[in-house]
Structures are given as structure tokens and as C-alpha cells.
Amino acid sequence: MSQRDQDLALVDEYVQNPSLKRHMLAVEAAMRAYARKFGEDEQLWGTVGLLHDFDYERWPDAPQHPLEGSQILRQRGYPEQVIYAILSHADYLADQYPRVSRLDKTLYACDELSGFITACAILRPQKYAGLSASSVRKKMKQLSFAAAVSRDDIVRGAEELGVPLDEHIDFCIAALDAASIL
After folding, report:
1. What digits encode the pLDDT tens for the residues 129-149?
2. Is the four-CA dihedral 126, 128, 132, 138 of positive or negative sign?
3. pTM over 0.85
4. How far apart (Å, rounded) are the C-alpha atoms in residues 45 and 35?
5. Which of 46, 114, 145, 155 could make an S-S bridge to 26, C-beta 3.0–4.6 Å?
6. What is the distance in angstroms between the CA of the first residue and the CA of the last residue of the chain?
């Protein structure tokens, strides 16, 4: 069984909600695309993106998510690098798990944004085709749209990653489109 098959089996074991699964696949797609761009380990980065919220359905409250998931990942032999990156995506754990590596920062940058881009694309007949940073930023100003998505986290994520926001948005749109997330 490949690493991705193992990751997907873990997702299937813990996640029932199709929207949450779609979100996790979207973050995985963005993480894999950034791994290729940065010359990093695509499988490792994909695992981090795919598994970052696998415990959320069972333990949605802070700090149980992602602390409960980290224990499960350790029991199953996942590398500490994967576990640390997942722990660092939770702002409320920033004192214990600050985002220090490019992997940590990329997960944080892709998490909320991938969800927001997916929400934008779902409403469009052409999905990702023609979706651009300017149209996503326009939707970001509409606070009632995808209200649970933190606009501050999206902006902070791009800043921490050191990528201009529009470039980051366009990059993630292309990654989700290429992976056919929807």
C-alpha cells in the first residue's frame, strides 16, 4: 500500500463529511503544488495537507484538534515533521508549535485559502476557469460569504510564506483546478 493510500485510509476512518474531505484534498493539492515549486518532497507535503484536519470531525474544539490527531499519527508511525507541521497550523498552539519551517508556513498559508477558493469555485458554472485573485479578493470583502473562513488567516498566511497575496491566490487556484477538486 502506498503512503497516499495509507493516508486516504486514515481519512476514510475518521472523516465522514464530504465537504471536510474535499477541503483536505484541496489543501493536499495546494501543498503538492508548492512542494514541486520549492523542490521539496511532494509526498511528505501532500501527507501534511491531506491529514491536517483528519481529527476535526471527532474533536472540533481547540486544543483537542489537532492534539488528538497528533497522538494518533504518532501511534501510526508518522514522522515528527508531519506531526509538527499539522500542530503548527493551529494559531492557538503557536506558543508550543510556532511555524518555523517552509512546510509549516505553507500548510498555514494553504489551509483557509483553499477552503475559500473552493467555496468561490462551487458557485461558478465554469468552476475554476476564469477565477482569479481579483475575483477571490472581491469575495473576501463580502463577509457573509464563507463566513467561517478567516480572511486575516489568509492574508497572514501569504505574508508568513513570503508570497504576495495575489500570486498565492492564483497559484492555489491553478493547483486546485489541476487536481480537479470539486
Report:
1. 999 999 999 999 999 999 999
2. positive
3. yes
4. 6
5. 114
6. 26
Sign of the alpha-carbon torsion through 108, 103, 6, 121: positive
| Placement of cell 482569479 in the chain | 132
Q: CA 36, CA 28: separation in Å to the nearest integer?
A: 12
Q: Based on the structure, what is the number of domains in the chain? A: 1
Bin 62: left if φ > 0, else alpha if -120 < ψ < 50, else beta. beta
- d(CA 48, CA 24) in angstroms, rounded, equals 10
Range of the domain at 116: 3-178
Any idea what the CATH number is for the domain that residue 148 is in?
A: 1.10.3210
Query: How many Å apart are CA 166 and CA 175, to the nearest integer?
Result: 14
For residue 58, count CB atoms less than 10 angstroms from its CB and return exposed for 0-12, middle for 13-18, buried for 19 or more: middle
